Structures are given as C-alpha cells and as structure tokens.
Amino acid sequence: MVSTDDAWFGTSDGPAQHAQATTLRAVETGRWIVRAASTGLSGIVAPDGTWRARSELATQTTIVGDIGPPVETFYLRVGPQPVGLAALAFVVLALIPWRRQRA
C-alpha cells in the first residue's frame, strides 16, 4: 500500500508523476499496489502496470476492487546487486591508469 499526500502539488502534473512511479514499482516488484492519496489519484495497480481502478484528482471517492497474488519478476530474483556491481566496476576501471604503448 502506498499512502501519499500530493496536496502541495495542487493541480500540476505532480500527482500524476507520483502515480506513474507507483505503476513502475508494481511492475518492478510484481506486486499489486493499493495507492491512497488524500487529494485524488488513488487506485489499484496490477503487477503488469495497469490501473484496475482509479480516482480522479481532487475527488472524494471510495475505490473497491480485488487484488491477486504477486508475480515473480527478474528484479525480485536477482535484486539490486547487479546494478551495484556494475557501478563498482565502472569506478574501478575509471581509476586504473591506462597507458598507451608506444610503437
């Protein structure tokens, strides 16, 4: 569940951008996400990123829907370690002094 207060964004694109982040998190983790926002854009997001139910901005409503079991994803199997290892390798390679061989 994601509980958020996007009121300080007003009617800008901020609440929609936060809602998009929720969509990405659902796809990444393979989990159903229930998003509750005090100023709207609440809803239920499926593991494939589709919004099964969604409220409008600045409306008061109740969202009701079913959620299912989680889905196995690549990220859940390997975790964030490959990204960290790649970053470490990049730093190590950047620190190695490369010398050109003269002919």
Descriptive overview:
With 103 residues, the chain is an alpha+beta fold. The chain has helices at 14-29, 74-78, 81-95, and strands at residues 2-4, 33-37, 43-45, 51-54. The chain has a four-stranded mixed sheet with strand order 1-2-3-4, covered by helices on one side. Strand 1, helix 1 (14-29) and strand 2 form a beta-alpha-beta unit. It is elongated, with a radius of gyration of 21 Å.
Strand order of the largest sheet: 1-2-3-4
Distance between the termini: 64 Å
Percent in helix: 25-40%
Q: Which structural class do you get from the secondary structure elements?
A: alpha+beta
Q: What is the H-and-E element order?
A: EHEEEHH
Radius of gyration: 21 Å
Largest sheet: 4 strands, mixed
What fraction of residues sit in β-strands? 5-15%
Q: Uncertain segments of ≥5 residues (pLDDT<50)? A: none
Strands, total number: 4
Gross geometry: elongated
Mean pLDDT: 87
**Total number of helical segments?**
3
How are the SSEs placed, and which strands pair?
Blueprint: E1 2-4, H1 14-29, E2 33-37, E3 43-45, E4 51-54, H2 74-78, H3 81-95
Parallel strand pairs: 1-2
Antiparallel strand pairs: 2-3, 3-4
Jot down its keywords:
103 residues, alpha+beta, 3 helices, 4 strands, 15% strand, elongated
Q: Brief description of this entry?
A:
Helices cover 35% and strands 15% of the residues.
